[in-house]
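Notes to self after the call with IL:
- keep both proteins in one doc
- input above output, always
- annotate only the second one for now

Protein 1:
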Amino acid sequence: MSRRSTHHSDSGRGSGPGTVRDGERDGTSGTSPGSRPRRDRRSSRWDEHRRARRHELTAATIVAIRAHGAEVGMSQVAAQARTSKTVVYRHFADKNDLYLAVCDWVAAVLVGQLQSAMRDASDDPRQTLVSGIDAYLGLIERDPEVYRYVMRPPKLDRPEGEDPVSDLCTVIGDHIAEIISTELRRQNRDTAPALTWGHALVGMVRAAGDQWLANRPDLEREVLADQLADLAWSGLARTVTPSAASSAS
């Protein structure tokens, strides 16, 4: 990423491209007192610039997390982005706002990987389940510090009910629920349990993944995925009952 001066497009000063004059930030340029604000092309360009800059800073945060760990500080984020903390805070209200942006990035990447893995799986529903679980565990294996960061919200005051981690898991749970619902419809079965099962699966995989990351580094990802798939597919009644044990011997 190229070095950017805080006296150019980040600050909206100067006379070069990207310069924003008074009134252009909120699209009120050229309006009279009491009239309805009218957006113009210049304000739209500024909106695009802000979105692009937020994306760049979020990407820099991901790199900084990988380099410095889940406890990365804003100074390290700013250094990775080759800018100042002042500029970072110009595009993100606070550390929690930046955290939410990282959560959105992780959710988009993970859901995309889940969809791709399940598409590539065969028509065998169990293999589809294994592929989905393996995709989630793959994120933990490839990006452990980013995963830790997402699962540790910053200790800041947030509106009641606003929990980015739950939002991330909700996105994944809803996606899995839809896949289960599709399979139940194909079998002409009641789809009512799909939402419960989808979110239960995500909770199970998340808990096992957290424990794997913290205490079981020698366990291969593929083995863990198969273990979780066995439990989810067969259920406890078919894996730990005396009849199951005798049939396996």
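Protein 2 (the one to annotate):
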Amino acid sequence: MPAEADALLALHTHASSPQDMPFLRSLFASRCDHLHALGLPPPALQALIDQQYACREADYLRRFPQAHTRIALVGDECVGSLVVYDDNTTLHIVDLVVAPSVRGRGHGRTLVQQVQSQAHTAGRQAVTLSVDPMNQSALRLYLTLGFQVTEKQPVQWRMLWRPCPRDAQEDAHAGNLSLPTTTKG
């Protein structure tokens, strides 16, 4: 089995803790190309990134007070983060980030599939998320995982995935096993 396949199998998560803050801040900074483009001196740039991070965290706390942040790891290496809000009906993926150094290895796909599996197991009606339509790789991923666009705004598209009820899955599976019958008459 290739090393990348081994790494994918080893992807796991744990609840974030205060020790994970430097990693979470670095993930946030990895998505701040627009701020780096300002050409600010490094101390001013860092202050701006820190301010933006604090504002985002306050916004998440206000909008998703019971959201849980998980750290994604391969072995002992932190490779991403996932923030999920559960309102007992729907799981909402608030944020998903994979570290730039390990993007393109399927970690994002695995994390989304884990949320989908959790929704199915917990009996949730849907998984929802928002995505920047300019982020074509994320949009493509969500579409291939069965998400549908439910609302298009200029800077974000809302998407929804519904788990297939267990009975419907069993019926579909049973239907695939049976041979079609025809009657001549």
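Annotation: Residues 113 and 138 are 14 Å apart (CA to CA). Residues 168-185 have pLDDT under 50 and may be disordered.
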